[in-house]
Amino acid sequence: MTAAPATADGELGAALAALADDPERRPLLVALDFDGTLAPLVDDPDDSRMLPAAADALARLARTPGVLLALVSGRSVVDLHRRAGAPVGTVLIGSHGNERGRVGTYGLERDAIRLDPDQAELLVAVGAGLTAAARGRDGVWVQHKPAAAVLHTRMAAPDVARAATAQGLALADSLGIAALHGKDVVEIAVVLASKGDALAALRTELGAAVVLYAGDDTTDEHAFATLGPTDLAVKVGPGATVARLHTADPRTFCAHLAEFARALD
Ligand SMILES: O=P(O)(O)OC[C@H]1O[C@H](O[C@H]2O[C@H](CO)[C@@H](O)[C@H](O)[C@H]2O)[C@H](O)[C@@H](O)[C@@H]1O
After folding, report:
1. Arithmetic mean of pLDDT, 131-142
2. 126 and 8 share a domain?
3. End-to-end Cα, the chain, rounded Å
4. Are residues 178 and 209 both part of a single domain?
5. Residue 40, CB half-sphere, CA atoms under 13 Å: how many?
6. Ligand 1 atom closest to Cα of 41?
7. Which residues cross the membrane (predicted)?
8. Which of the listed residues 161, 189, 217 is the one where a domain comes to its end?
9. Last residue of a domain, which of 189, 215, 237?
10. 167 and 237 fall within a common domain
11. In angstroms, how far is CA 107 from the centroid of its own chain?
12. Whether 92 contacts 86, CB under 8 Å
């Protein structure tokens, strides 16, 4: 991985313009992370909102022939569906690849995750262990998902966040599970999945010739790593990355995406 350059918007704009102008590079799968990419990060995940430029871009992309649209998120598909309000036909990959859904004409179409008894028992232990890590620590709280629990530390003082994070990571170790250490979160899932595996499977299933993928967090690196030289991998925000293209934050990314969608429309 290399540190992303401070600004590389010219390169991103040129790459998107070239992709829009080349009808041979279809079908095109546009797969996008949600938090930190289409929606700026906020303290409370329930307050998270997609930027207007992103909503405009998704609506245009959804009606463009030869373009397939997917959102790829750590959120559950139910949460992602409600929050993103994505257009009909959009594929929703949730829980970092553990869940799949589709925005249908009459609402969300999806298969619910089924945990076996061992996984269900493990999920209870994960929830209890992370709740213990949050107990007595101001600004630390636990989010429960269909196959995982997440320790959130964004609102805690740095030393409090560090101690809670260490306890969360130690819990994962003691349970023999690899934790996902994202932006101010430690997530422990009881079913193994990655955005990379989910993206690769979706690409094959849809027969996409080219993929444009954008994301901001460590879990998005798994998706970037599956892309080839003719695909576009876009890192949003600071941090080390394997992505070739970069932009400063969700606002600049969504402005690029909206321009790209207008060029295709
Ligand atoms: O894959 P994503 O769509 O980026 O989802 C990753 C996680 O997003 C949420 O947490 C992140 O965004 C929150 C709201 O801006 C922020 O408060 C938190 O610190 C971030 O880590 C969501 O709550 C998680 O469940 C997702 O896994």
Report:
1. 98
2. no
3. 35
4. no
5. 9
6. 15
7. none
8. 189
9. 189
10. no
11. 21
12. yes
Here the tokens at position 116 are 């076996």
CB distance 35 to ligand 1 below 6 Å: yes
pLDDT tens, residue by residue, 63-98: 999 999 999 999 999 999 999 999 999 999 999 999
Classify 17 in phi/psi space as left (phi over 0), alpha (psi -120 to 50) or beta: alpha
The first and second tokens of residue 5, run together, are 């350059």
Residues 6+ apart with CB under 8 A from 222: 194, 195, 196, 197
Catalytic residue annotation:
33
Q: Please, are residues 139 and 155 in contact by the beta-carbon 8 Å criterion?
A: yes
H-helix segments, the chain: 9-21, 52-62, 77-84, 117-134, 158-175, 195-206, 218-224, 250-264
Verify that 126 and 177 share a domain, yes or no. Answer: yes
Enclosing domain of residue 161: 117-189
Our answer on whether the CB atom of 127 is closer than 6 Å to any ligand 1 atom is no
Measured from the CB, is residue 73 less than 6 Å from ligand 1? yes
Dihedral Cα 12, 242, 5, 179, nearest 10 deg: 120
Specify the residue with its C-alpha closest to ligand 1, atom 21.
183
Place of tokens 């969360």: 168
Q: Are 33 and 106 within one domain?
A: yes
Q: Kindly state if the Cβ of 154 falls inside 6 Å of ligand 1.
A: yes
Indicate whether 35 and 14 sit together in one domain.
yes
CB 210 within 8 A of CB 26: yes
In a shared domain, residues 13 and 121: no
Rounded Cα distance between 171 and 44, Å, is 24
Q: Choose between 2 and 78: higher pLDDT.
A: 78
Q: Is the pLDDT of residue 3 over 60?
A: no
Distance 35 CA to ligand 1 centre (A): 5
